[in-house]
Amino acid sequence: MKYKVRQADAKRSINIEGKYDFMEESPIQIDKATRMVRILETDTDGAVKTVMIDNRLYHVRVRRRGDGFPEEVVVKGVPYPVNIDKIESTRYRPPPAPKKIAGDVVASMPGQVIALMLKEGDKVEKGQSVLILEAMKMENEILAPKSGVLKKVASKEGDLVMKGDLLFEVD
Amino acid sequence: MKYKVRQADAKRSINIEGKYDFMEESPIQIDKATRMVRILETDTDGAVKTVMIDNRLYHVRVRRRGDGFPEEVVVKGVPYPVNIDKIESTRYRPPPAPKKIAGDVVASMPGQVIALMLKEGDKVEKGQSVLILEAMKMENEILAPKSGVLKKVASKEGDLVMKGDLLFEVD
Amino acid sequence: MFSSVLVANRGLIQANCVRAVKELGCKAITIYAPNDRNSAGVRNADEAYELTVKSSGIPYLDIDQIVELADRLRVDAVHPGYGFLAQNVEFKRRLNEKGILLISPEFNAIDLLSNKSAFREFGRGLGMPILPGSETSSDVEELKAAASDIGYPVVMKATEGYGGIGLRVVERESEIEGNYRSITSQAERFLFQPERVYLEKCVKNARHVEFPVARDVNGNRVVFPERECTIQRRFQKLVTESPCSFISASLRNKLRSAVEMLVDQLDLKGFVSVEFLLDGDQAYLLEVNSYIQPSHAVTSLLTGVDMLREQVSIAAGQPLSFGQKAVDTDKVAIGVFVSAEDTENNFAPSPGKIDRLDLPYGDGVYSLTNVHTHDSVGTFYDPIIALVMTKENNRDKAINKMRTALDCLHIDGIRTSIPLMRALMAYPPYLSGDYDNQFLTTEENRDRIFESYRTPLDSEIASLVAALSLHRDSSKQHLLEQARSNSKSRIWDMASDWFNRQK
Amino acid sequence: MFSSVLVANRGLIQANCVRAVKELGCKAITIYAPNDRNSAGVRNADEAYELTVKSSGIPYLDIDQIVELADRLRVDAVHPGYGFLAQNVEFKRRLNEKGILLISPEFNAIDLLSNKSAFREFGRGLGMPILPGSETSSDVEELKAAASDIGYPVVMKATEGYGGIGLRVVERESEIEGNYRSITSQAERFLFQPERVYLEKCVKNARHVEFPVARDVNGNRVVFPERECTIQRRFQKLVTESPCSFISASLRNKLRSAVEMLVDQLDLKGFVSVEFLLDGDQAYLLEVNSYIQPSHAVTSLLTGVDMLREQVSIAAGQPLSFGQKAVDTDKVAIGVFVSAEDTENNFAPSPGKIDRLDLPYGDGVYSLTNVHTHDSVGTFYDPIIALVMTKENNRDKAINKMRTALDCLHIDGIRTSIPLMRALMAYPPYLSGDYDNQFLTTEENRDRIFESYRTPLDSEIASLVAALSLHRDSSKQHLLEQARSNSKSRIWDMASDWFNRQK
Question: Taking every annotated instance into account, which residue ranges of this chain make up the domain Lipoyl-binding (chains A, B) (predicted)?
Answer without folding.
Answer: 96-171
